[in-house]
Amino acid sequence: MVTSSERLRRLLALVPYVVRRKSVSLSEAAAAFGMTERELIDDLNLAWCVELKAPEPYCPIDLSYEGGEITISQAESIARPLRLAADEASALLVALRMLAEVPGDSSAVARLIAKIEAAAGASGAASSQVATIQSDSPNVRDLAAKITAARTAGKRIHLRYYVPSRDEATERDVDPMRLLAVEGHAYVEGWCRRAEGVRLFRLDRVLDLQVLDVPLEVPDEAEARDVDAGLFQASESDERVELELAPAARWVVEDWPCESVTELGEGRLRAVLRTPDTRWVRGLALRLGEDARVVAPARLADEVRAAAVEALAAYT
Amino acid sequence: MSKRRTERLLSIVVLLLSTRRYLTAEEIRAAVLGYPDEHEAFKRMFERDKEELRDLGIPLETGLNNAFDEEPGYRIKKQDYELPEIRLEADEAAALGIASRVWQSAALAGAAAGALLKLKAAAVPGLPQDEDDDKQHPGIEPRLTTQEPAFGPLWEAVRDRRPVTFLHHAPGRTDPTKRELEPWGVVNRRGRWYVAGYDRTRDAPRVFRLSRITSPVKMAGPAGSVTVPPGADVRELVKDWDRSPARDQTAVLKVRAGAGFRLRRWAAEIAPDETGWDRVTVSFADVPWYADYLASFGPDVIVLEPPDLREAVIRRLKGVLA
Description:
The structure holds two protein chains of two kinds.
Chain A: H1 4-21, E1 23-25, H2 26-32, H3 37-49, E2 62-64, E3 69-74, H4 86-101, H5 107-120, E4 130-133, H6 138-153, E5 155-163, E6 168-182, E7 185-192, E8 197-202, E9 206-215, E10 239-245, H7 252-255, E11 260-265, E12 268-275, H8 279-288, E13 292-296, H9 298-314
Chain B: H1 2-18, H2 25-31, H3 39-55, E1 60-63, E2 73-76, H4 78-81, H5 90-99, H6 106-122, E3 140-142, H7 151-160, E4 164-168, E5 177-189, E6 192-199, E7 204-209, E8 218-219, H8 234-241, E9 249-256, H9 261-265, E10 269-272, E11 277-284, H10 287-295, E12 301-305, H11 307-321
Antiparallel strand pairs in B: 1-2, 4-5, 4-8, 5-6, 6-7, 9-11, 9-12, 10-11
Helix pairs in contact in B: 10-11
């Protein structure tokens, strides 16, 4: 349910949108505003019903959507959209500056930034207080350019890809679907021919890339992952790992997505995470030494101790 | 109710945009449908409406028409209200579509979507963004997520120039400390959010990682009471905060054949050692940090040199058994 102010904001954009286009179909306008035709008609009716009683009673907005085509014959003072608010201008400018920083052609972005800054005026000022720093290596930039070129040419790519949880390199043929920069890293998302599924590959883990002379072909069932819900998606079959962390190891819960984090007092934490592969947790526990304890599963705790005993034996 | 409220708010906007004179609250009540007769109830409702309009960014102006007026009136100046003329080329419209999808945080994703609607409304028709919003973008699409609850209030504090207080729990500390900060800006660096500003508690500029703020962020002063010093560069402050030190030391390691792929990738030299092992020479920056990292390989990596690194790894491994 939209609030009255969200609805007003939408109406103040909808009226100029139609005025600017002279005539627009219900379906097109509904799609542009991300609402159903029913909701759109409700909004149009609302605008049409606006009535001022004084000094003379009159209806300032006159419109029609007969035959599915919207026309607005009278929109008075709201024929132009409202200025960008500080939040709106800032959100957009920060996003555009970030877009300008990621690898790729940014001339359109630079022109757009200038236009929006000019249109926003003082509303855009706060955007300079929000900054994003992408630090992609030249290697990542180079890979991104190659993948962009492969997509434009409609070609499949071959990756030699490092898998950190197994500490090994793998070979895969991938039909690239899109390039993303999420949580500080650049990724290519694509249909992995080896896994027969959609996978994300972090570009700084790509050891080698070749553009194949094979047409890019993404199967119909391939669905882009909802990366916005977080890159890591736990699955039912994942193993539950429980760690107890000393204050010096608090950073662990910042760097790994945890199912739950509990303060135990004195700066100690209990962290519960889920993972399909516990090998990396063994490495993590080894590096944390006395600052962490694997509470569960017991098998993993035994593995960590055994690895430490074996490693220490090599030093004596 | 919400429908009638929207109707009333829209009427006020239309009315105040069409007047050159300031209209008093009473004149507005006379023109707009839906206000109650009772005076106090009307005043309360009108106050809420004004606040809601201002929150939407509608430039409600207050003033007197002449020196004899006792009560101030309201109007909206067209030139303050209207988005200036803006024309977008096709490639700019495409970039706008991508930019509007960057934010994934509730607060600013809504703001970006609102901006997109206004610009769409203003843009010349027939531009590709009308039909091709979801067109595949060949380059990188950035995403900004803000899972940290501190982001929303800190962004508002930065925007409105207000000081804040919060509890900050640094790693290695048993307790959080209370901080009073004049925030200068928020920065996302490699996917992590930081706030930089003047720390009144420490009397110096400081940077805090948002994920380490363990309490709600509270406003500690009125809007406009923070001055960002000229030349303060929040990007540089955050870059300096955890700048990686130079890798100016060299380690010699025994690495099990087929293991330690990550190490080998950055190695200066890899030579065969006794059967089943390689000798890997690699540069590193900091003994404690690198010792932790090497300990994570367990029995697959043995430090030969330097001695202090070797000792640090042994200590770490003994810690596991402690």
